[in-house]
Amino acid sequence: MSVGPYNYSYIFKYIIIGDMGVGKSCLLHQFTEKKFMSDCPHTIGVEFGTRIIEVSGQKIKLQIWDTAGQERFRAVTRSYYRGAAGALMVYDITRRSTYNHLSSWLTDTRNLTNPSTVIFLIGNKCDLNAARDVTYEEAKQFADENGLMFVEASAKSGENVEEAFLETAKKIYQSIQDGRLDLNAAESGVQHKPSQPGGRNTLVNDQTASKDSCSC
Amino acid sequence: MANSESEDFESADEGIVSKSQEGSSQLSTSAASSASLIGHADSETASTASSKKETLDQSHGDFVPLAPVNPESLGAKPKMPLTGRGKSYSKHRSNINNADTSDSVVPSSNDPINQAPSRKGRSGSNKLGVKISPSAVVKSELGPPDSNKCKGNTDSPWSNNLSNLNANEENQDVHDSFQPLLDKLASLDCVEASDEVIDTTTDKAVSNWGSWGSWGMNTILSGASSVSSHVTQSLSTMSSVIESGLGAVEPEEMAKLSVEEAKPRPPKPIDTAQGNPAFSDQASSSFNVMGNVLKFVESTGEMIVSSGLNTLETIGKKTMDVLQEGDPGLKRKRALFSREPDKPTLSQILKEARNRGELEDRERAQAKKATRAHFETLFDDYKGMIHLEALEMLSNTCQLKLEAKLVALSGTPLVEFQRKLIQIKEKCDIPDDDEDEEEDRGTIDILERDLTAAMRGLLVPVSHTKLIRVSEDTDTWLATMRCIQDEDSQNDNDEWVDEEEVSEETDPQNALREIHQQAIRALARFTAAVAEHFHKTAELLLLKEEHDSLLECQSVVMMTSALCSRVSSVAARFSELLSASANMLDSTQVDHNDVNLLITNVFLEASNSSSYIQDASLLLIPVLQLGAVQ
């Protein structure tokens, strides 16, 4: 088999979670397209975005699962946490309710992901400082208490958006280097691509195998 | 040892000196080298001869800072080239590893000048290098006087004028009795020669050509006199030592130099001068003039040669430094270049590297081609894979929930529950052979009709516009290609088109590959859209409060078979296009095996696509089952 077409060596799975309307899809769009989407439709279930970044000289493909924030999709989106290497937990600094729900999102994340999953708290819409409803300090304290990384960002201005995604990737990569994250574990959320198309075929095979088990 | 040294000399001289100045430059070279070395010695009076040698060996760089010192201490006009020449000379020496570098320099430069008048002046064909070889023998004997002399020089850095004056006075008295000694010394003091040149020379020079012997002696004596004045105190000591060394020196070489020097003059005087030391007496009155001429020529040649040599030397030195870096003695590099039979030569290595590079390029190009037409990759790029993955995760969740319910049940409810699950599964079986029912299955109209009906049955707000759009794009492309083909075939019939021109415009193989690639891309894109469609359907089915499970199952089956039919239809139309294109082309241009391979591959990927679609529909079953039992 010829050398594969992959120009990256890892795939990290991210999941973006948070209440409806906090700007999850806009953050993703800003990160992947470097544009602000002013009227973003409600996400159905989950949408996907990808971007290849570089951490410590390694090309990493970020595979970002942008989940629906609507409460009715909560049961569906819970299926998607599994195997996320990074979780971006987003609230809206102008709406305290979205901040108050964080503990519920955090519980879901802790329950449905593995311990090595990096959780990054993002206070979105920091361009609307005048309408601020949640102070930086209290959010920072919440993040510190729960061992989360934290930043206030703006999907509109692009401020700190890159940083949030890149810092998460760096932390994950560090975990791999330290050996805390086992690449062979099924739910690590990280796929190592030894630059062979076999990686993808493996995925298909896994799927077929699991399909056999579930369609009996 | 001596040979290698002389070779160095020879090649350096020959390489750089222009023909007309050959003779003078050869002479001046030796003069310059002795000059710079003496200068070097001057600056390091305190140090012993051996330590000087070390300096010479270790770093040529030492000479650079010394450059300004030389002229000063010798009373000479500043001549940078001197330094350069000295460098090269010292390098030869250090290479040879002879006893004492600073010692050896003196006699070697001595030889040529010294013997010129006394022996054959004619053997001009001999090389300077040959002459130097005996000097290697001499040099060790001359150690002490040299260092003495050096000291003398440093102790009394006299001006030119003074030394010249002294020379004139002393010569008369001394030169008869000390003739051999002075001869020897003359060469030591060649440095002085270059100093006096420019002011005095030109006018006097013309008249004195008459005596060959006189000019030769002239040089010697003037040089000797100045030296002798430098070293008056230790004259006796020196004379004994130098005399002892004198016998060993080969005179021919110096004579040769002299001949070269004398070229512009008529050959006759040379003959008379040859082997006739008596001339020196006659010529003593005019020897200063001749000396000046010689010195002028000498210094000019010296400047030219030494600047050129200087550059060459710097290059050579740097090269050696680089080569020897981390490889003392060049052992590894020598090993690398030595031609052992089993070891590959450099050219072989380069050739292999080039071949390897070409191979890699080819492989990369092939890989690129393969990538472009690689169904899985394209499917992934169109996000089909990830939707399928998400659908699978949903399906697994549903399966887990069903199992949880199953465990909680027992007795009749369990049986009823299982019966429902099995019923749903059976209803979702996709019938195999219904493709012949309608001729035009796979067209967009039929596809849209079936999809609309299916979605109505499923009662989920999932739009199938994406599927339709993708299908339309494919149909548009196929239609365009067919138009082009029709035009081409018409053109062929008209015979108006120059066939060569056509074949030059497009490589037929590439055209076929392009069609194949487009087929794979269309299939991958469509399949990805299907995966997304099924995924969204599953998500929204899970949100539904009420289910008509049987209708849902029928709808899923209808949808699946419509999509699969579409895939078959697309594959068939691309294959038709491929074979039609191949048939249009001359059989010499196209390998029909290749065409068949391409067509086979299209059908293979179509079946791959169909199995993805059916996998997706199977993943829906637990979702439908969960809806049925809620």
Overview of this structure, please?
- The complex is a heterodimer of chains A (216) and B (630).
- With 216 residues, chain A is of the alpha/beta class.
- Chain A has a single domain, classed as Rossmann fold, CATH 3.40.50.
- Chain A has 7 helices and 7 strands, in the order βαββαβααβαβαβα.
- Chain A has helices spanning 24-33, 74-77, 96-100, 102-112, 136-145, 161-178, 198-214; strands spanning 10-18, 46-55, 58-67, 86-92, 118-124, 149-152, 190-192.
- In chain A, strands 1, 2, 3, 4, 5, 6 and 7 form a 7-stranded mixed β-sheet that branches.
- In chain A, strand 5, helix 5 (136-145) and strand 6 form a beta-alpha-beta unit.
- The relative contact order of chain A is 0.19.
- The longest helix of chain B is centred in the middle third of the chain and has 38 residues, at 287-324.
- Chain B is built from 29 helices and no strands.
- Chain B has helices at residues 2-16, 22-43, 49-58, 63-66, 69-74, 80-96, 101-115, 128-139, 143-155, 160-174, 179-188, 190-205, 212-230, 235-246, 252-261, 267-273, 279-283, 287-324, 331-337, 346-372, 375-381, 384-408, 411-427, 444-458, 465-494, 499-505, 508-543, 549-584, 592-629.
- Chain B is mostly helical.
- Residues 1-167, 190-207, 267-275 and 495-505 of chain B have low confidence and may be disordered.
- Among the domains of chain B are: 324-372; 374-486 and 509-628, no CATH class.
- The chains are: A alpha/beta (216), B mainly alpha (630).
- The interface between A and B is medium-sized, with 29 and 37 residues.
- Chain B: Keywords: Phosphoprotein.
- Chain B: This is Protein FAM114A2.
- Chain B: Belongs to the FAM114 family.
- Chain B: InterPro entries: DUF719 (IPR007998).
